[in-house]
Amino acid sequence: MSETRTQLTRDLPVEGRLASLDSATGWLNSDPLTIADLRGKVVLIDFWTYTCINWLRTLGYVRAWAERYEQEGLVVVGVHTPEFPFEREVENVRWAAKDMSVEYPIALDSDYGVWRAFDNHYWPAVYIADAEGRIRHHQFGEGAYAEQEQVVQQLLREAGRSVGDELVSVGDEGLEAQADWSTLQTPETYLGYEQGYSRVDGDRLGLNQWALSGDWTVEPGAAVLNAAGGQIRIRFHARDVHLVLRAQAPPVPFRVLLDGEPPGTAHGLDVDEDGRGKLVQPRLYQLIRQSGPIRDRTFEITFDAPGVEAYAFTFG
After folding, report:
1. Which of 76, 168, 171, 303 measures 20 to 30 Å from 56, CA to CA?
2. How far apart are CA 304 and CA 252, in angstroms?
3. pTM value?
4. Are the C-beta atoms of residues 299 and 256 closer than 8 Å to each other?
5. Domains and CATH numbers, the chain
6. Secondary structure class of 85 (helix, strand, coil)
7. In angstroms, rounded to a whole number, what is the distance separating the alpha carbons of residues 161 and 183?
8. Beta-bridge mates of residue 213
């Protein structure tokens, strides 16, 4: 499906030159690409990491642009710069790319070389370069999808391509569904001590506070479970609850409760109505997706085996 918008024609500043991709530690879906290879192409560089919910909500658009404009001279390059240690493992990224239908070229940036070359600081971040290799537009974070696509269209026209004014329309479902910004009141919450905050002891939780029960070790980047039966609780206000998890010895069964009860129809993609799920791949798990009025609620998850690494909650 597509939408039609008034054609955008405006002066786009030159923000710099397309930085080198030579420091990528590997490539998926493509042979290594150089600046010379990209000469004459409009290029969209998309910085991502596969557990990032903010990037996941942009993926439907980036994927659709790659498909629609490939024959017109657009090259989309996804630069995968890992946030969590397990995202440095090539096989994990390969699995995630296949699972998420990311079929355009992927530069693996495990050492942050490409990130530094672009002086980038964000997931997601998009840089759009013209056919002369000049960066003409950028977008940090989610949103502005129509503007980004109109920039692509304009740069393709500048390169002599004939493209229409229609804009892609993508599905709003699963992990790619846009956040319910009007009700989202709980921020991303890290569980390691380097970035963690709002952790409390005891049973009483205020909004956006979280607690551990059971035998856990809180490491710099994650809370690690030492014995079966460990639990994480958080008081939140949002439609969706996600949690980045890894199991040292998968699979690990788990159980989710919402205000002390099975989630029922509020269950996420990775649990059933009784709140039961299984930790297999190291990734982001969608545990709650509510419909109807959103209010303050208490989420809890209990793991049936040790060796779980819990990294961060995100919400939508």
Report:
1. 303
2. 6
3. 0.94
4. yes
5. 2-176 (3.40.30.10), 189-315 (2.60.120.260)
6. helix
7. 42
8. 231
